[in-house]
Amino acid sequence: LLTITFFTVNKREFVFLYSNLLTKQNMVIAIGNDHAGTDYKFEILKHLENKGIKVLNFGTDTSDSMDYADAIHPVANAVESGEAMFGIIICGSGNGAQMTANKHQGIRAGLCWNNELVALTRQHNNANVLAIPARFVSLQQAIGFVDIFLTTEFEGGRHQNRIDKIPTKCC
């Protein structure tokens, strides 16, 4: 199953061919959020479950203030271990969540606030975690980002060489 999607960003038109990733059976997604992302998390959960995707919920279910790292590290661990294929992390700006996830050697988290960035973080960076800034994008945008993220393939080639240079060893 291939879907063609057209959209425009800064007067540039983009066309993406999406594979059938969203229809793969046994897909597991890990999701984590702080208090700023709770409402978005519930809607994204519902959206994914309606597609038959299993979701591991590591985020808070309330709007009570909490430390984002407590919800993000379990998402990163689930993706690194292979328990989940991808992760979705949500906080107010997305920055703290992304920084936390990227502390894990096997994680490439991309902070995205438009469709083009979401597609490029998968195509060029083979991101395995999507960071969503809940205070800066609408719920509909966030759900669209999830679909783009989960259906956009990594291009490989010259991008693989660049990704291979990301992990570092201290000292």
Describe the structure in your own words.
- The chain is of the alpha/beta class and 171 residues long.
- Helix content is 36%, strand content 22%.
- The protein is built from six helices and seven strands, in the order βββαβαβαβαβαα.
- The protein has a five-stranded parallel sheet, with helices on both faces.
- The longest helix has 13 residues, at 38-50.
List the helices and strands and how they pair.
Blueprint: E1 3-9, E2 12-18, E3 28-33, H1 38-50, E4 54-57, H2 69-81, E5 86-91, H3 95-101, E6 109-111, H4 115-123, E7 129-133, H5 139-151, H6 158-164
Parallel strand pairs: 3-4, 3-5, 5-7, 6-7
Antiparallel strand pairs: 1-2
Structural class: alpha/beta
Measured by DSSP, the beta-strand proportion falls in: 15-25%
Helix content: 25-40%
Mean pLDDT: 89
> Based on DSSP secondary structure assignment, what is the total number of beta strands?
7
Secondary-structure element string = EEEHEHEHEHEHH
> With helices defined by DSSP (H or I, 4 residues minimum), what is the helix count?
6
- How many angstroms separate the termini? 47 Å
Q: What oligomeric state is this?
A: single chain
Rg (C-alpha, Å): 15 Å
